[in-house]
Amino acid sequence: MRWLKRFWSAPQADQPAAEDVLAEAEAALPFIQNLTPDARDRLRQMALEFLAGKEFSGAAGLEVTAFMQASIALQACLPVLELGLSAYDGWVGIVIYPGDFVIPRRTMDEDGVLHEYDEAALGEAWDGGPVVLAWFDDPEEYEGANVVVHEFAHKLDMLSGEADGLPPLHAGMSVEAWDAALGDAYDDFCDRVDAGEETQIDPYAAEHPAEFFAVVSEVFFVEPELLNSTYPRVYEQLAMFYRQDPLARGQ
Question: Which is one Pfam family of this protein (predicted)?
Fold first, then answer.
């Protein structure tokens, strides 16, 4: 992978080639199109810094291309556009699989019985370790999920310790208001999923408060109208946390 590292850290004279790849990747991400020209410029520059500081590797024989890296970088940087890349300090690895992959799990039930099983996954974020992502050439194969935003939301959540749906909040934000908005929404969403309702938001959000935060973060950036119409208080809290208002971009 050394040639890819050299590509993104090339001298300034060679940067137009990198900018071309970023532009191609950006054109394939419609939820970035509504950013202001200034915000898009800052996102591209942040993506270049991200690419220079992270190490990509392919799994299961996948050949990682510059386009893949650029696409992942743009999506990963969007949540921290107003927070800064330092939020992703302390780790460097990004592992990409060709499609979904299997993670071996071990869990202990209430009776002390150990259960081992394999779980199909689209992504995995490790505390202090790499981010693992599935890559599909056709975005429709993601079935509406944004794996990159999801897993990098977990990384932000982990800045306060174990992922629990409560990332470190900024000065002026209230933990009580966050808990009320996201906690009430999570309880309501779980009730709807348990009742068999076909929700527009990915039902995987009902798995755990940390998954709820990651899924609603996806929706916040990709389908803000859906989140605001379904859980307006959650939208308000995420707008304060990410310091962005995706709804205002379309006005």
Answer: Peptidase_M90
Asked which of 94-98, 104-108, 243-247 is least confident by mean pLDDT, the reply is 104-108
Whole-prediction pTM:
0.88
pLDDT in tens, 213-222: 999 999 999 9
Q: Which domains does the chain have, with CATH numbers?
A: 1-145 (1.10.472.150), 164-251 (3.40.390.10)
Q: What percent of the chain has pLDDT over 70?
A: 81
**How far is it, in rounded angstroms, from Cα 213 to Cα 26?**
25
